[in-house]
Amino acid sequence: MIVGTAGHIDHGKTTLLQALTGQAGDRRREERERGLTIDLGYLYAALEPGAALTGFIDVPGHERFIHNMLAGAQGIDLVLLVVAADDGVMPQTREHLAIVELLGIPRMLVAISKCDRVDPARVQAVHAQVTALLEPGAYCGAPQFPVSSLIGEGIEALRQALLAAQNEVRQRSVGGGFRLAIDRAFSIAGAGIVVTGTALAGQVKVGDTLLLGQVGKPVRVRGLHAQNQAAVEAWAGQRVALNLSAERLALEQIHRGDWLLAEWLHAPTRRLDIEMQLLASEPRAFEHFSPVHVHLGTQDVTARVALLEGIRLAPGERMFAQLLVNTPMQAVQGDRLVLRDQSARRTLGGGRVLDPFAPARQRRSPARLAQLQALAATESLEQVLPALLANSDTGLDPQRLERQFNRLRSSWNLPPDVCVITTRQGPLLFSVVRWQALKASLLEQLARFHQLEPDQLGPDRDRLRRFAAMPLDRPTFISLLDELLASGVIEVSGPWLHLPEHQARLSEEDEAMWQQLQPLLEQAGFDPPWVRGLASAIGRDEAAVRLLLRKMARLGKVHQVVRDLFYTDARVRQMATMLVQLVADKPQIQAAEFRDRVGLGRKRSIQILEFFDRIGLTRRLGDQRCIRADNALAQRTEG
């Protein structure tokens, strides 16, 4: 069990821990000289002989050191709120209480200290003060213990209450990746660099490789202590000290606020969607996009808060919000955080992380707010997944979900109405209903294209994607289209996509013009007229002839060798057969040999050969060419 103190300055937190453990808390010279706890103190003691060690984190009470208090409050199991009998409830008593409530610490015990300095009536008055203070919140009815650390009064009763709580503390789940928020880093002669913190999730063993800090530097665990005892492994809920080694690892590179994480879990982020609560004690509403300090784990960063359901948040109210942090953070769903004002002088409120990978766009859309509602209602991946998928047009990245919920895919139990789609950029999750709806929508859009462009066989992939205007990125769209092609409900002819029953139809005017052009192209053999000549021959506009021939090229009736020079499909196949015949006796073709075979000049022959290079029938090798055996045209020609 990890116990953390809380309370106003000079209310006896450190002295109380010394009475409970027999160990001095303030070990720094400046703390002893000033009689003031400045930074976090760490003690380990068995509350009775043979009991497991309890870890104690002593936090400073002065308002100037609230940031240190916040760094120590993360991950504790029980908070020991200390209120001096002579002073009673003071400002930092209230602020510390607000902080531990925001952090969701599950248990509290209250010690009314310095009872030897006052009469019993004063102790009862402070007891009533504390009862009234706790009544509106999560710690209503928390046990209170009058104590005197100097004469030992009430210490044994408090120790027994701590022992009972220790037996009732719920074991934290060791599933998921290891997470440790670093609160100290130091060097030991002969051992090297050591970092300490409270393990928030997972487990770690000697020899494991973890990632350190924002850059994710790989480090190896050379040794470890758990609850101040040498061990070979540690797990969530323990105070842990890790001896780290890595190439060019220096103590100056490690700071309070850095994270040690399992390799697959490392994913720094600058946008986090949270459920935000403003303290009821705030004098005014919180305004949209106000600057704040964000405390998460042992990290303290500045950020802006974008309110998602309005432009201001009233005291005591909750609202979905997005944090735009100035320094990358590490977080998972369910993490608790505290927000302080821009000057870091007072606590404003806090919240719970819902999505550490929040979107930059459509963050206030009804679909996104519905996702946040589902995330706020449960922390179970399986329970929230249907709602997330129902409000997602683009699918969900399972790797992002792994990091968001700190759960590897191997531990998931996916609902039966979820399908996994394979794309070139990795798998995506869709609801079966949504995926089928996307297929139906694409078929409708392709049918609409055929209605609007009846003279075209169909669009290519990219044109269909633009025409359908679906919210899918290209890899996901291609996967959707590939499934439709595999099922036969869409067919492909060359690059053109079309419904099986669709056939391109020319308009009456185009059909009449084609009947004039086709004989001219066929009769010209290997030397057809250019577009200008064809237009002059039939007395039509040059642009209209060019447009029609390009339509016929999409239908596969003609092929454009160079701009404004078209050959019929039959003539192209005839020339392909000539090339195949030329390599029957030797593997490579000279351009002059092809020129002589077709009876054309060198320039036109080269243009035709370059066309065959482009469509993949031939491959140029210096001044010669060979036939690509894998080309479909070559295979049909040989057949």
Automatic annotation (TrEMBL):
Q: Which residues form the Tr-type G domain?
A: 1-172
GO cellular component terms given for this protein: cytoplasm
Q: Where in the cell is it found?
A: Cytoplasm
**What InterPro entries does this protein's entry cite?**
Beta-barrel_SelB, EF-Tu_GTPase, EFTu-like_2, Elong_fac_SelB-wing-hlx_typ-2, P-loop_NTPase, SelB_WHD4, Small_GTP-bd, T_Tr_GTP-bd_dom
Q: Does the keyword GTP-binding apply?
A: yes
Sorted keywords for this record are: Cytoplasm, Elongation factor, GTP-binding, Nucleotide-binding, Protein biosynthesis
Please provide, alphabetically and separated by semicolons, the GO molecular function terms listed in this UniProt record.
GTP binding; GTPase activity; RNA binding; translation elongation factor activity
Tell whether Protein biosynthesis is among the UniProt keywords.
yes
Q: Which domain of life is it from?
A: Bacteria
Q: What is its main location?
A: cytoplasm
Biological process (GO) annotations held by this record are: selenocysteine incorporation
Entries under CDD domains matching the protein:
SelB (cd04171), selB_III (cd15491)
Name the job this protein performs. Translation factor necessary for the incorporation of selenocysteine into proteins. It probably replaces EF-Tu for the insertion of selenocysteine directed by the UGA codon. SelB binds GTP and GDP.
Annotated PANTHER family: ELONGATION FACTOR TU, MITOCHONDRIAL, ELONGATION FACTOR TU-RELATED
Q: From the Swiss-Prot or TrEMBL record, give the protein name.
A: Selenocysteine-specific elongation factor
Q: Which organism is it from?
A: Pseudomonas fluorescens
Species lineage, top-down? Bacteria, Pseudomonadati, Pseudomonadota, Gammaproteobacteria, Pseudomonadales
Originating gene: selB
